[in-house]
Amino acid sequence: MEISIIQILFLLFLAYAVAPTALIRLGRVGAVTRAPKGGSRVVLTFDDGPDPLYTPQILEILRSHQVKACFFLVGSKARANPELVRQIFKAGHEIGNHGFWHKPVWLLGPVSTARDINDTNRAIEELTGQKIRYCRPNWGLFNLFSIVYYHLKGFKVVLWTFMSWDWTKGATPESITHKVMNRVRDGAILVLHDSDKTTGAAKGGPVQVIAALPEILERLQQRGLRTVPLEEIIKESQSLTFIKFFRRVWGVYDWAFRKLSGIRNLRDDKSSFYRIAFRRYRGKDWLMPDGSMLKAGETYLELHINNEHLLATIGENVKVERAALIALREVRSELPAVAQLLHKDNRYRHIKALLAITLLHRGTEHLGFTAYDMQQGPLRTLISWYERWLLGLYHPGGFKKLGSYRDKLVPKYVVMTRQDLMQRYLPVDAPASLGTEQVSTVGQDCAL
User: Are 296 and 283 in contact (CB under 8 A)?
Assistant: First the structure.
């Protein structure tokens, strides 16, 4: 099964935008969505301001009830209302980043994403003199770069425990109060809105919030729930580490890619170290190590490393050298299963080539592979970036270890002919082969 341009674009969008958002919003990982239980606490937050009509009224209600909240401000509105930003800050409320133009980051590239975050921080910090620590992306949407950037800059991503739907057209003070009080529990992070000038917000929505807020604060107190600053709970909140989060994100992409491109486990169970795909060669005639020729239109078997199985095998704290030896042992241990597959399964009797693309090709010659240099060009650059990413993501040493030997991480083709595979790894007592052709196999060793 060949993968089309449309499928590639879909996979890129899935990996860049949908998967990060789904894992954070649905899986509640990589961001703070509630306070730890046990303190009878809730956190009150406001989005989309500041607004000169509504924000001062909300500030007055909070002052009269002696409650502190966190205001996630839109950068362009902060620029337009500097005195209001200072008023929020001087009242002792916390301030977070809610984007500069309130645009969904699904539609922003890496440069635009960084600019959106930085411009908002700059607008607020120039007015308050205080560094921004908290970020809440518009509509709770993420892209792959925004998550990386939040991590690199040390920001805490704060979402919410549930929605009160106060920004919708049908919201009333009674409906807002009912939704909040019906779902609020110890540790909840509440979100309301103090502006109606963003896409999707109902005109006059904050009027309903202002009418509902005093009763909500009083009923929270009656239940014994304290409304506390975000800072009080943020130190206790735990989220996934950067690497573990991205392994989950990449796992979603990897699953979709395998489904669309016909990659399956070598065996029916999920314990296989290899994953395989049936492919058709489309390049120029290629002279194989045994003298046979791989020609356009002929078929080959593509091998992929099961990265989750590799990580489970080598563990999190294994040294780099030890990890390489374990991985090499796993590669060798499953080559007999590949030989059996080609030998017994009629679907693979015309396979002509085993060609691996890998950064870690040292030592593979001892297993019967031959390494070939890749031609300089965009393909080599793209593959190099892709496999370094996977290596940093799944290797116990992580991305930091890559810097010390980056120049040595050059992708190469790794080839083993069918004849060599059978001679080395097929049991002596196996029945006669189904075909007489020489066949080489192509394996894509992505994260060894």
Answer: yes
Q: How far apart (Å, rounded) are the C-alpha atoms in residues 76 and 79? A: 5
- Enclosing H/E stretch for 190: strand 189-193
Q: Is the peptide bond before 206 cis (omega within 30 degrees of 0)?
A: no
Nearest to 31 by CA among 245, 197, 215: 245
Token digits of residue 249: 């994100």
Q: Could you report the per-residue pLDDT of 315-329, keeping only the tens digit for each? A: 655 555 666 677 778
Domain that holds residue 431: 263-444
Are residues 159 and 31 in contact, defined by beta-carbon separation less than 8 angstroms? yes
> Do 270 and 401 lie in a common domain?
yes
CATH number at residue 95: 3.20.20.370
- Give pLDDT tens digits for 218-231: 999 999 999 999 99
Which amino acid is present at 439? V
Alpha carbons 275 and 270: distance in angstroms, whole number: 9
**What's the number of domains the chain is made of?**
2
- Whether residue 1 is contained in a domain is answered as no
Question: 40 and 149: one domain?
Answer: yes
Query: 346-361 as b/e, with b when 16 or more CB fall inside 10 Å?
Result: eebbebbbbbbbbbbb
